[in-house]
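Appendix B. One record, verbatim.
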Amino acid sequence: TSGGITPYGFTFDKKARVYITDANGSGLSSYSLPGGVLTTISTYVTDHSGAACWVQLNPAGTFAYVINNTPGGVYMSGVSVYSINANGQVALIPADTISLGTPGADSSMTKDGAYLYYMVIGGSVNAFTVNADGSLTQITGLTGLVSTLEGMAAN
């Protein structure tokens, strides 16, 4: 389930909460699973972009990074940054949202949470350092990869 109408990507935190993106309305919802019953924490928080697809959490579970697949709304394809409070409620941090203008195809974060990677449709990867406050700083990525590249993993 999702607070929107088109659930797409999801991830779990260490407290068995699930975070689900919604591609149609472009946003993020959060849920807890007490006793295996799905209970809403945050019902659909929009990111004012287009097609929220993939989601990564930092290791502490205090920030979520949502990759947007299509341009739309205020932001043009990129990474939407959400804060996550101790109860699992999500809130968009508009100042930290990055517009890239190029649709994403997948994402991955290193185990230590130091780097976030955003695969771009067409054969390149954008790379970011993850700052202590959850914001992102773009660094040199990869270009010239095969245009049919699918899926990614980071260590």
